[in-house]
Amino acid sequence: MEHNRLWPIADRVSRLWWRTVGRPVDLGGDHAWLTAPTSAAGVVRDHWLPVEAERLGGALIAADADAGLLPDMECLAGPGFDPERLDPAIRDFYEHTSQWRMEIWTKWSPLFAPAGSIIGRLYGKRVQQLALPVDPLAAAHGVDTTITKVVDGEGNHAGSAWLRTLRGTGDFMYSGYYRSALLPGHDRPSIHVSFPLEHGNVQVFLRPQNGPDGSLLLESPAGEFGADGAYVTVLERGRHYAARVPIREEFRIYVDREGVLRTDHVLRMWRRVAMRLHYRLDRVSAPRAAGEQAPVVRSEATG
To answer: Domain span at residue 209?
Structure first.
């Protein structure tokens, strides 16, 4: 029981650290591009979703058999990326993610595996967020995925929550929020992924590029504050702080010679590879029947 009382202290110390190494940001002004869902204290899972819908004055659309991470890949079009050049299976996955099943393999670098294991046990599993399995067998039974769309007060798509749980245990790996975003001063949109945490979040801006043979390349490279990459934001004593973090990710989404959709995912800390992941994606669900409506869960205003 004693250690349960220490976790809130540890989480507060973590936020104080990010406040120290970060910078003050104005999410209502110059840094609105960092506005993203956060979570209350305790377990994250999908508890942040109704709060985000309420913040937008909108609603949640759950159990939509046709839901995707993005409403249309055209929202990412710009210099260096043409959605029309993508293999149709890749586009179908992003626009109709609910119809795809995922299998995952992981391989940690020996240098980073001990830290990954400690963080996973003491943090990821505890809060049910960002819990990357260190043991490859943990994901042997596959990963279940659920898409919940968030719409604003006018019914426009605001983002999609992609909830990924280990099929064998039901534990959350990721509870992420996906949308497109145009960073200040940039000439094309990025994929903006945010992972809510207690009074803060981790955010990644991924730059899309066309690869050979209709493949899709996504990268969060090194760079300056305000560029594509990874960030942490926290709310501490009524003020928001943000820091750019040295996490670099690369995704290669492609169709192999047998027609199977796959993804190679490399996660680096600074320039060193921390882990590699591989995903096999199979389309399993039929499109929703014409005229069939997805249920809408409306957020209730408070006060």
So the answer is: 2-297
